[in-house]
């Protein structure tokens, strides 16, 4: 099995999958699979042997998600082994995976909560973070997709999503499919403000670069979540949410506008089945309440925040957050062409 594992990582995982996915798979192999199967022959890995592996993991305290991932890794290994002619059949396919309890239905953040998060960041002069929150909540991008955006991807009416950042490296999108996401007027306003403040000098400049103008490594992302996003979420009465959860707000606004599940899946970049499983419970609610304009909902939330007695003007100047000094002056011509 060790020879197959080495070949699988070298020929399949490293060149094909995301960097972080490869790291997760290696941890599963080293901790759970190699101790029990590493020294056995491929022919010795029968369905019974896989069931014994599953039972052993359960006895050692592995959770359902860990067992499912381990079996998925093992199944992928044998799928490649079948393709490469090393075994005739994949024994893992015959093994029943432990049942995974579906997580609670998503609770999409309302525009007022998103705007409270943004207000907290803007009060501290953190325009970059406030704009990133807007892109996640009002365009439905995954965090890695947002961090891979270039200014040339911000077009007249849509955002082109064709890349993602994983562990500081640029990769394709999660499902390998490019998509164009509609830009609502509030998001266009936010992106225009951030572009004027950050003054990029080329269309290929990242919209949200790190301090050196490069894609964010994991450490930068972790620090941002802990030091910028988490306090803002707590201030909005939404402790514990992840930046990824902002994406549900976009899908909820689409449904409130009257979009179909197919349209939601196209805009969010996942399958119609996943869209239905994730957001199906919102369909009846939106149809009963009547359809709403996302733009009007977002602007109404902003007016409510600005008119609130607790609303505070930015206590610090709007910050560009350590943008490199050698980026030079902004190019007005290409900006006008992409955002007009």
Q: Low-confidence runs (pLDDT<50, min 5 residues)?
A: 312-340
Number of domains: 2
Q: Please estimate the helix content.
A: 55-70%
Distance between the termini: 58 Å
Quantity of strands, as a count: 4
What strand line-up does the widest sheet have? 1-4
CATH domain class name of the largest domain: Mainly Alpha
Helix/strand-derived category reads mainly alpha
Overall pLDDT, averaged? 84
CATH level-3 fold name of the largest domain: hpI Integrase, Chain A
Rg, please? Answer: 23 Å
The gross shape turns out to be elongated
Helix and strand run: HHHHHHHEEEEHHHHHHH
What report would you give on this structure?
The structure is a single chain. The chain is mainly alpha-helical and 340 residues long. The chain folds into 2 domains: 2-94, Tyrosine recombinase, N-terminal domain (DNA polymerase, domain 1, Orthogonal Bundle), CATH 1.10.150; 111-339, Orthogonal Bundle (hpI Integrase, Chain A), CATH 1.10.443.10. It has 14 helices and 4 strands. The chain has helices at residues 2-16, 19-37, 47-59, 64-83, 111-123, 127-139, 143-147, 185-198, 218-235, 246-257, 261-268, 272-289, 294-307, 332-339, and strands at residues 158-161, 164-166, 169-171, 179-182. The chain has a two-stranded antiparallel sheet. Strands 2-3 form a two-stranded antiparallel sheet. A hairpin with a 2-residue loop joins strand 2 and strand 3 (169-171). The longest helix is centred in the N-terminal third of the chain and has 20 residues, at 64-83.
Annotation keywords:
56% helix; 14 helices; 2 domains; elongated; single chain; DNA polymerase, domain 1; two-stranded antiparallel ribbon; hpI Integrase, Chain A
């Amino acid at each position: 099995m060790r020879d197959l594992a080495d070949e699988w990582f070298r020929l399949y995982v490293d060149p094909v999958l995301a960097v972080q996915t490869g790291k997760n798979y290696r941890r599963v192999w080293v901790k759970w699979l190699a101790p029990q199967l590493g020294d056995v022959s491929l022919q010795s890995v029968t369905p019974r042997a896989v069931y014994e592996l599953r039972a052993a993991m359960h006895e050692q305290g592995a959770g359902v998600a860990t067992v499912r991932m381990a079996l998925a890794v093992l199944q992928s290994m044998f799928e490649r082994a079948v393709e490469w002619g090393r075994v005739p059949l994949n024994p893992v396919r015959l093994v029943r995976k432990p049942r995974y309890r579906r997580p609670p239905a998503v609770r999409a953040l309302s525009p007022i909560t998103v705007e409270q998060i943004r207000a907290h960041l803007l009060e501290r002069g953190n325009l970059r973070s406030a704009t990133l929150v807007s892109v996640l909540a009002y365009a439905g991008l995954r965090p890695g997709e947002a961090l891979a955006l270039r200014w040339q991807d911000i077009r007249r009416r849509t955002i082109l999503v064709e890349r993602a950042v994983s562990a500081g490296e640029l990769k394709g999108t999660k499902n390998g499919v490019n998509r164009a996401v509609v830009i609502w007027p509030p998001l266009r306003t936010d992106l225009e403000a951030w572009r004027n403040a950050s003054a990029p000098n080329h269309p290929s400049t990242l919209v949200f670069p790190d301090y050196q103008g490069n894609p964010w490594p994991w450490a930068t992302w972790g620090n941002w979540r802990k030091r910028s996003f988490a306090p803002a979420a707590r201030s909005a009465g939404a402790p514990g949410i992840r930046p990824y959860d902002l994406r549900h707000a976009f899908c909820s606004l689409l449904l409130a506008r009257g979009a179909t599940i197919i349209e939601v899946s196209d805009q969010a970049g996942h399958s119609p089945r996943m869209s239905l499983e994730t957001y199906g419970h919102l369909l009846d609610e939106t149809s009963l309440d009547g359809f709403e304009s996302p733009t009007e909902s977002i602007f109404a939330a902003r007016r409510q925040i600005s008119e609130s007695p607790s609303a505070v003007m930015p206590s610090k100047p709007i910050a560009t957050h350590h943008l490199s000094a050698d980026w030079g002056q902004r190019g007005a011509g290409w900006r006008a062409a992409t955002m007009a």
